[in-house]
Amino acid sequence: MTQKIIIDCDPGVDDAVAILMALTSPEVEVLGVTTNVGNVSLYKTQLNARRVCEVAGRLDMKVFAGCPRSLFNRFAPESVEDTAYTAADIHGESGLGGSKLPAPTMPLQDEHAVNFIIRTLENSTGDIIMVCTGALTNMATALIMSPQIAAKIQKIVLMGGAIGLGNITPAAEYNFYCDPEAAHVVFTSKIPIVMFGLDVTRQTEFDKKWVDEIEALNSPVAQALVDILSDAFKPGAYAEPGTKGTGKVLHDVNCIAYLINPSLYEGRNVYVEIDTSDTINSGRSTVDWWNKIGKEPNALVMNKVKHEAFFALLTERISRYPKFQKSANGTL
Ligand code: BDR
Ligand code: CA
């Protein structure tokens, strides 16, 4: 059965791969793509979402820009074209690594992302899944503006947090660190949550051999993906802490892979609390893995993924994009 989803993201290299995977997967129907400030500014994340949809041939996809800053103003940029905090060291200045994708021609929707989320959920029968792969600012703002939508969300499948150590501070993972209060709003909402934290996403490391496999698919999308990922292998490129191999990780893609094939994953229903203190623990997700305090579980927290099956699925979904067209004289 097709699952209706809204992808709320901050593309972002791995967000981009997640969008590309979703758009060739009949198991999900993408109702819209909404963006937050996150890896780069709001201006760049909405631009990147459109660049990615466009190379995928989905000029009909509706892309919305959302919140330009976090709820409590932790990282308040001067404008939507700016960000007071950025992961450009990982995702590149543009946010799409070594991408050569042109500026998009498809329009940005006029409606604010949060209004789109609220309107779409209100008009739904309760069957929509929110896929959140950036800071949770848009999602939390929607819940604050219209608390009644909580009952309309089937579940929130998100990338963020960790059972173990963080990647931006000793305690926190990047998405939750960027907006801890928003994560707190989501985790106290009583909406079913499936959490892909660093413990599981760090198991989806890719290497140059896999990128070569993607290149061999010989399509505009495959080439775009190769370019986007190319910065990861430059000397001195970022390596995700706590990984065992290349340190190049496709965090956000796990949310989509899970919706296509949940049997790739193992996890546990547990209680999770977000630290909103202004301390070294800011943005930390404390996961009661051993049920030490007996609180009602509020999330299914994943901790294992079948690595080979994950990459086989991703490669197969990217292979569904049309190949480069040969011209009459046989050239590409
Ligand atoms: C998360 O942070 C971002 O840099 C990635 O896109 C991912 O969503 C990983 O911590
Ligand atoms: Ca992301």
From TrEMBL:
Q: Where is the Inosine/uridine-preferring nucleoside hydrolase domain?
A: 5-311
* Parts forming coiled coils: none
Cite the CDD domains for this sequence: nuc_hydro_IU_UC_XIUA
Decide whether keyword Hydrolase is in the record. yes
Superkingdom of the source species: Bacteria
Q: Any idea which UniProt keywords this protein has?
A: Glycosidase, Hydrolase
GO molecular function ontology, one term from the record: hydrolase activity
Is Ligase among the key words of this record? no
Protein name as annotated: Nucleoside hydrolase
